[in-house]
Amino acid sequence: MESVYQWGLDVIRIIQKIESPALTVIMKTITSLGAEFAYLALLPLIFWCIDEKRGIRLGTAVLLSAWLNSTAKNILQQPRPYQLDPSVGRA
């Protein structure tokens, strides 16, 4: 398992080395897509304006994904990268 942690830390360090204002904007945009506001805004929009059936399927997929993610985190209880190596920092 130590090699997996090390690989993850190496990936984070590589991404941090290529930091630029444009990349920061892209990464923050991707991160904001995981916020509750994005779901609360996009799911009803898809349901009402695009396709009801597709909206229901997407909503179900989002709920299932959130549940699986939470369950996996609780079962595995892995440390965050900044807890393993403070030099990678915390965004």
From TrEMBL:
Entry keywords, A to Z: Membrane, Transmembrane, Transmembrane helix
Matches recorded under SUPFAM superfamilies: Acid phosphatase/Vanadium-dependent haloperoxidase (SSF48317)
Protein's UniProt keywords contain Transmembrane: yes
Transmembrane regions: 30-50
InterPro entries tied to this protein: PAP2/HPO_sf (IPR036938)
Entry protein name: Phospholipid phosphatase
Organism: Gracilinema caldarium
Lineage of the organism: Bacteria, Pseudomonadati, Spirochaetota, Spirochaetia, Spirochaetales
